[in-house]
Design a protein that fits this description.
The chain is an all-beta fold and about 100 residues long. Strands 4-3-1-2-5-8 form a 6-stranded mixed beta sheet, with no helix packed on it. A 3-stranded antiparallel beta sheet has the order 6-7-9, with no helix packed on it. It contains no helices and 9 strands. Strand 3 (about 30-35) and strand 4 form a beta hairpin.
Length: about 100
């Protein structure tokens, strides 16, 4: 496998973390699921900066976002598979 575009720690994660620069809308992204050693492919719907997240599935308003097998917040809007996931569409559940 070549260098992945994003990493997923656990098969239950709903997002992957971008690990390369220059992700553009329409780009086919390759990801590595670490716990199962699987390779997955997602088409990016937006430019996504290094360290930000890509949705691995459709996420509905209010759904829990899971990264590294941990709840990192709730979706504050619907998020399409392949879309950029960050502070504009995710909010902590703490407040």
């Amino acid at each position: 496998m070549s260098i992945p575009d994003f990493l997923v720690h656990d098969a239950t994660d709903t997002v992957g973390v971008i690990v390369v620069e220059g992700i553009e809308a329409g780009q086919e992204l390759t990801g590595w699921v670490m716990d199962t050693d699987e390779t997955i492919v997602v088409k990016s719907l937006a430019a996504i900066p290094l360290g930000h997240k890509v949705a691995l599935q459709r996420i509905e308003l209010g759904d829990t976002i899971v990264k590294y097998d941990n709840d990192i917040g709730a979706a504050i809007s619907d998020i399409a598979k392949g879309d950029h996931v960050h502070v504009h569409n995710v909010k902590t559940k703490r407040w």
